């Protein structure tokens, strides 16, 4: 209807369907979903790519038009930017409360109330669940599979570990180097001794360097609990993304990190991956995009970077903030496929 007449009438369409079968489009959420589908399709178009075409189409998208000086990545990102404007209307009432303002590193990056994890192990002075600047993120196949949060500040260190404990975040991914914490965050784990953070004790038992990232094993316990009540947490630090670079230096290292983090997290049921960076957006979003992209390729046999970024920006509109990161998502997809050539055939 949109392409044929340049107009759409969702109400009349649903009305006609109901004349044929009364209970079509039963829920208000389904009716709203129709508008979402229309909007995304009309603004962004068809952006899905078959696995076999990824390399060829990525190369074609890198070619700039002589008239507009834009390439395919620019055009797709521009469409995503346009639709993101609508995602900024979601309420962030808790983050704006006076008592929570000091817990936000940046006042313009707040968690939406609908997908903000609440803290049960860190209560307010009134006994209500505690606040942390964090959001749930859907993977390609699972709701709320990941949690993204800002690097903890001194006043939120205990809240950070309460988040890990309450939501069984057995894998914690830090999207920057440990030495950069001096500039934009507080160190939240001990190097070689047990340290208390509020009601929690953290003990580092092992640290091993890998190709482009470092892996540490932490033991998390809660005070006043029985001795066997603990959580083993694997901390992954991406070492190949200096502060002065817009994208990581080694896409293969990030793909490897994603695989290892997912493998460890899947060893415990109902557990999640926690992703953190300075603002809880700019760098963390790239890890989440990588998770979705790898799953698209493996589960669906296709790649849709635009859809992956749109789904992320519904939860936090500051994810994937520039076209450099957006085009790097295609690089990650190719790197993921290359890993199958190295270690086995892709099926």
From TrEMBL:
Pfam families assigned: Y_phosphatase
Protein name: Tyrosine-protein phosphatase non-receptor type 20
Function: Tyrosine-protein phosphatase targeted to sites of actin polymerization in response of varied extracellular stimuli. Has tyrosine phosphatase activity towards various tyrosyl phosphorylated substrates.
Record-listed E.C. numbers: 3.1.3.48
SUPFAM superfamilies, sorted: (Phosphotyrosine protein) phosphatases II (SSF52799)
Reaction it catalyzes: O-phospho-L-tyrosyl-[protein] + H2O = L-tyrosyl-[protein] + phosphate
PANTHER family recorded: RECEPTOR-TYPE TYROSINE-PROTEIN PHOSPHATASE, TYROSINE-PROTEIN PHOSPHATASE NON-RECEPTOR TYPE 7
Entry-linked InterPro entries: Prot-tyrosine_phosphatase-like, Protein-Tyr_Phosphatase, PTP_cat, Tyr_Pase_cat, Tyr_Pase_dom
Domain Tyrosine-protein phosphatase, chain residue ranges per copy: 73-336
Main enzyme class: hydrolase
Domain Tyrosine specific protein phosphatases: 252-327
Signal sequence region: none
Native organism: Pyxicephalus adspersus (African bullfrog)
Keywords: Hydrolase, Protein phosphatase
GO molecular function: protein tyrosine phosphatase activity
